[in-house]
Structures are given as structure tokens and as C-alpha cells.
Automatic annotation (TrEMBL):
Keyword annotations: Isomerase
SUPFAM superfamilies xrefs: NagB/RpiA/CoA transferase-like
Domain of life of the source: Bacteria
Lineage: Bacteria, Bacillati, Bacillota, Clostridia, Lachnospirales
The organism of origin for this protein: Hungatella hathewayi DSM 13479
GO molecular function: isomerase activity
Span of the signal peptide: none
Name under which the protein is recorded: Glucosamine-6-phosphate isomerase/6-phosphogluconolactonase
Amino acid sequence: MTDKIEENNRQGKRTVFIIPFGPTGQYPVFVDLVNTRRISLTQVWLITMDDWLDSDGDLVGLDNIHSLRRKMNQVLYSKIDKSLLMPEEQRIYPDPKWLVRIPDLIEALGGVDICFAGFGINGHLGFNEPSDLSIEEFAKLPTRVVKISETTRTIKASTGVNGAMEDIPLYGVTVGMKEMLCAEKVSVYCFRDWHSGAIRRACCGTVSASFPASLLQNHPNASIVCSPNAIAQCY
């Protein structure tokens, strides 16, 4: 992230990233590099790829434990020297009441430099869950409200709230496959033991909307970076 930002800063160019909230281990490193190397983020746009919705279809409140807006501020924005930080209007989140904002913004900014991501056990990217759509139809899905799959909710409950499925929202809002796949580069990071099987399907399986990460095979500049445990046994 910092290398690309510094490169663009030297060239007087804007930097546009699509980023996930979690995992969060990279953000303390990013914050330290920015603050130590005095990297200006004033020409950087960070688009967080998803967030959770409440039962009324609104973004969960900032006081909700699932709010990714609150969490991003806690782990990232509040830690950066204010003299280096981008304006708040350049910290972008999908909004169920303003779905066209992100597609329109990306077009106005001239595209996305890098989409950073991880993927779920069912291959979801952001909240782009498995689908029976054709590859072409799925790849064109824009930023939108989605129903969260039982698989994703189960994983979230088991890793985030000690199994309390009833506390996991049923709906979310996500940057679409269209916006992610339009990025000049897609960088995916996998580090969990259960990623082994998912990595195999993403890299070597049939390209299908039934496993969204497999569509990265069709991207001209996509990479998957794996920790040793994540590829120890690629079933």
C-alpha cells in the first residue's frame, strides 16, 4: 500500500484503493510506515468494501459492535498523524441509500489502483456471495444490498461473537464484483488454516459465480499471497 502511494505521490497522481476491514493485522504496520516515513495521504481515496445493515436496511449504528465504519476509525484513521491524513470525504463506505456513489466516484477518479481483499470459505469477496448467475452476469454486479449467506454468518459468529448467530445481521451492503474486477490490480491475502481448500478452488477450480474468488482467474493482474499454514494442505 505505502509503496504505491509513494509512487503516485512522486508522480502527482491520486491513489485509489478498495480495502477490506479485516483481517486487521496489516493496519498497524501501515500506520507505522505512514507516520514514520511521513507519507501524505491527502491524495488517497480508501474505499472500504462492505458494511453490515440493521433490520431496517440502514447501516448499523456506530455504536454497534459490527460497524465497520467505527472499526476502521479505531484501527486505522484515528492512528494516523492528522497532518498526513486524507479528508473524511475521501474515506468511503458503501451506503444502502446512495448505492451509485462508489461506482460514480471510481469513474470520476479514473479507476482503482489496487483492490485488496481476502475471501471467505465459500469464495465470497466482500459480501459478493456465491450465485447461480452466469460468469458474465456476476462480474457485472455493482455496489448493492445483499442477503448474507448462512455460511458467512456462521463463520462470522464463530470467529467474532463466540457463536452468537442471532447477533449477526442478515443483510449487508457491498462494493460489487464490477468495481473490484475493474481495479488495475487485485491483491488477495489468505492466512487461515481453512483457506487451503478455498485457495485450491480459487486458483485451480472451474471459474464460476458459485465460487466468486474463482473469477480472479480471469483478471489480468491478480495475485494471492498465502501464509505457510494456509497452503500446508491444499485439499
